Amino acid sequence: MSSAMATKIAIEYFDDLDGHSIDPQNAISIEWSWQETDYEFDTTTAHLDMIKNGRVPRATVLSKSRRTGRHTSNDARR
C-alpha cells in the first residue's frame, strides 16, 4: 500500500523597501534603469506613490533594488 503526500506551495511577497509582507493584490514589481544598469524591486502602491513624490531618496531605492540586466560601460561600446 502506498501513501500519497500532498504538497502545498505558498508564495509570499515582501516589500523591498521596508521588508514587510505584502498582500499579493497590492504587490507591484518595478523595473527601472540607472546609469545604464537595469534594476527591479517589489513594493506596495503606497510606497510607489512615496517614491514618485520624492519622499523616498533615490539612494534608498537603489540600495534596495536587485540588478536584473544589462550593464554597459563606455569601454564595452568601443
Automatic annotation (TrEMBL):
It holds the Pfam family Lsr2. One of its GO terms (molecular function) is DNA binding. This is Lsr2 protein. Residues 5-51 form the Lsr2 dimerization domain. It comes from Williamsia limnetica. Transmembrane segments: none annotated. InterPro entries: Lsr2-like_dimerization (IPR042261), Lsr2_dim_dom (IPR024412). It comes from the Bacteria.
